[in-house]
């Protein structure tokens, strides 16, 4: 009877934590979409206000805080291995909301051609989430300060933390000293920090919930140790993620970071909190299968997103010399060789010249020629 009651309480806690995680990720996705919509709307008007002075941005900010609070609380109820993969809900919701509010409307054939793979990824994400939630670990432990210390000093955890610290230092050495600015190195740094974050978040959130339930935990030093580690790891995660976004496309970063961070979070939950100790092989295999399907779905969702162009050239007429000049966002250079550039854009005091399909390409020698020698034919 006691075992049945314990199992029922564990199942109820897992359900509460799962629903909180899904709700929190949905709120974060809605908040980010609202903020993005506010940015797009503000950029398309002559409104001189900054984005943080608009009601739309503050509405998104409040929803983000509520969503992250729900995510934080979910770690106190459900096992870490169940909550971490549910970040796929955020990718799924962002993809759907972004298509509805921020994309152009397409015909059925064009939609299937352009977004068919993403739609298939959404189905895989839903199916994989159902699978790993059905076969995920059902054991749950109320982590008071004494239990947190007991887990922290166990030899598997100490070995895991030792390996993680050595790996982090090696990756940081190659990234900072050897200038190995590879995306995978930065995202591995983020994921290693993320595994520390989820461990500390679960400990802090559980001790706070126990304190609210009148079992005071704030008097123990381990609470403040975990709290400081949580804040530090979150800050450095944000720093490395911003550096990764400066090097590569954000959609690729979102999917790869989700996959690597979730894998390390599941390993951290299995080692630190022993979440799979009482599970049989079938449940573990089905859980891993569902997680892998969810990974594939998340990758396909972001696979077909339109990437921003790093170089968008345009041509203007040099006011001083009257020669075509090739521009990009960061530099102004003379066209060389046979480069096919787009429509001619005039400066303030120069009449626009339409592009002619039969004009020969402007060579580097012609860029140095006088205006009289430059032959621009008109119809």
Please tell me about this protein's structure.
- There is one protein chain.
- This protein is mainly alpha-helical and 379 residues long.
- Helix content is 64%, strand content 3%.
- It has twelve helices and three strands, in the order αααααααααααβββα.
- The protein has a three-stranded antiparallel sheet, with no helix packed on it.
- β1 and β2 form a beta hairpin.
- The termini are far apart.
> Which geometry do the CA atoms define?
globular
Taken in chain order, the helices and strands follow as: HHHHHHHHHHHEEEH
Largest sheet: 3 strands, antiparallel
The overall strand count is 3
SSE class: mainly alpha
Major sheet strand order? 1-2-3
Distance between the termini: 94 Å
Number of helices: 12
> What portion of residues belong to β-strands?
under 5%
Low-pLDDT residue intervals, each spanning 5 or more residues: 1-7, 307-319, 328-359, 361-379
Short characterization:
With 379 residues, this protein is mostly helical. Helix content is 64%, strand content 3%.
Task: Name its key features.
globular; 379 residues; mainly alpha; single chain; 3-stranded antiparallel β-sheet; 12 helices; 3% strand; disordered N terminus
Task: Present the secondary structure layout.
Elements: H1 2-43, H2 55-74, H3 80-83, H4 88-102, H5 108-135, H6 145-152, H7 155-176, H8 183-212, H9 221-245, H10 250-272, H11 281-303, E1 314-317, E2 324-327, E3 332-333, H12 364-367
Antiparallel strand pairs: 1-2, 2-3
